[in-house]
Design brief:
Blueprint (H helix, E strand, L loop, with lengths): L16 H4 L28 H6 L3 H13 L2 E2 H8 L3 H13 L3 E3 L10 E4 L8 H4 L3 H25 L5 H4 L13 H16 L30
Antiparallel strand pairs: 1-3, 2-3
Helix pairs in contact: 3-5, 4-5
């Protein structure tokens, strides 16, 4: 199930772990887990600094992911899915709407039962161009990693309950290669192209299939510490 797209270019203000992996991470989130196949929406949004900070809250990122992957919903529905009270849910929805990530679906509901939908199917952020601080970049990426981890754990927990034909098609695998930044960028681009060029199936047996691409220097390998 696709979740927010980010093509990463890092700021040059001071040396940090985030900066030192600039080339390797350039396409790290080029097709991340907040993408959607629901409805017709503009393909992507590039948030300003305030919008990026708004997305650095895990509840908002999960909420946006649900609206992108499952379609429009009410605050009540989202509160149940995310185990929140409706007041907190409404607050986070308003924050997402304020920064243009979602909008009210006026074709549904009423004044007491407002529906919300995503306005884009992915998020792209050029961190170098916008000159965000390292702290903002790290906060956003950490939130994305947290949401990815939650989805991975949910998928692993559900695996044994899947129909037989689906239980053997997935994988939880990792590899490590010694690469230059150029090699790493080329590898990520190749893998991204394979995923993006795989068409959706219209077969009646098709189902949302989540593919997450995570590629980065081994933590600590470049002298940055764990």
């Amino acid at each position: 199930m696709p979740v927010s797209t980010t093509s990463i270019e890092m700021p040059q203000q001071r040396t940090s772990y985030v900066q030192r992996v600039q080339h390797f991470a350039k396409e790290l989130f080029a097709n991340n887990s907040l993408q959607s196949g629901v409805g017709l929406m503009p393909s992507s949004v590039t948030p300003d600094i305030a919008g990026l900070r708004a997305l650095s809250h895990p509840v908002r990122l999960r909420m946006l992911g649900l609206l992108r992957t499952e379609g429009a919903a009410t605050a009540t529905t989202l509160a149940q899915r995310l185990d929140l009270n409706t007041g907190a849910t409404s607050y986070h929805l308003c924050q997402l709407a304020q920064h243009g990530f979602i909008t009210e679906d006026t074709d549904r509901g009423n004044a007491r039962d407002r529906w919300w939908r995503a306005t884009h199917d992915s998020t792209r952020a050029d961190f170098q161009e916008q000159q965000q601080d390292d702290e903002d970049v790290e906060a956003y990426l950490s939130t994305v990693a947290l949401v990815y981890g939650d989805r991975l754990r949910a998928g692993a927990a559900e695996m044994r309950f899947l129909p037989d034909e689906w239980r053997t098609v997935g994988t939880l695998s990792d590899w490590e290669r010694s690469l230059t930044p150029a090699d790493a960028e080329a590898l990520v681009e190749k893998l991204t192209a394979i995923i993006e060029q795989t068409p959706d199936s219209e077969d009646e047996g098709a189902a949302p299939f989540s593919v997450k691409l995570n590629a980065f220097p081994r933590p600590g390998a470049l002298g940055t510490g764990e």
